[in-house]
Design goal:
InterPro entries: Cyt_P450, Cyt_P450_E_CYP52_fungi, Cyt_P450_E_grp-I, Cyt_P450_sf. Belongs to the cytochrome P450 family. It comes from Talaromyces marneffei PM1. GO terms for molecular function: heme binding; iron ion binding; monooxygenase activity; oxidoreductase activity, acting on paired donors, with incorporation or reduction of molecular oxygen. 69% of the residues lie in helices and 0% in strands. Helix 1 crosses helix 4. It has one domain (3-141). It is extended, with a radius of gyration of 20 Å. The chain contains seven helices and no strands. The protein is mostly helical and 154 residues long. 5% of the residues are buried. The longest helix has 32 residues, at 64-95.
Length: 154
């Protein structure tokens, strides 16, 4: 389903809207084709550092239309939900100074601080368990998307 307009969503935007959609689809389609072009050996040989969202999706389905839809959903819908999550995280951390102290200590111990500290890797970020728990608790208390209306096609 596409919200209250259903299958008539295309009536709302006009030619400019449809052109913008086509440009977005072409951009994402090229990335999907490139990702699908990687052989299974290359995908499994990649380090954890190079693992991407598209790689995870390809393990679920190799349908280009499905992959495009999921990528567009993350790219276009992710901006506001991320901002909402960060806003609530900062507000709650400011209300709980002991949580800020614990979080700062974890980050300092794991990654270092200051201009000489290297950029953190994905593997290092995954080891920040308290940070992960803080984010999960914020999303539990204040979900960015309280209702995700999807309909099963089968």
């Amino acid at each position: 389903q596409r919200g209250p307009l259903g299958d008539l969503y295309w009536l709302l935007g006009g030619p400019r809207f449809r052109r913008a959609c086509r440009i977005c689809h072409e951009f994402v389609d090229s990335a999907v084709r490139k990702a699908l072009g990687c052989s299974a050996e290359n995908l499994t040989a990649q380090s954890e550092e190079a693992y991407t969202f598209v790689d995870a999706l390809i393990q679920e389905s190799k349908d280009p239309k499905f992959l495009r839809s999921q990528c567009l959903n993350i790219l276009l819908a992710g901006r506001d939900t991320t901002a909402c999550c960060l806003t609530w995280t900062l507000r709650l951390l400011l209300q709980h100074p002991q949580a800020i102290s614990k979080l700062r200590r974890e980050i300092k111990d794991a990654l270092g601080v200051g201009p000489e500290a290297p950029e953190p890797t994905i593997a290092q970020l995954k080891k920040l368990s308290y940070l992960s728990n803080v984010i999960k608790e914020v999303l539990r208390l204040y979900p960015s998307v309280p209702v995700n209306a999807r309909a099963a096609v089968r």
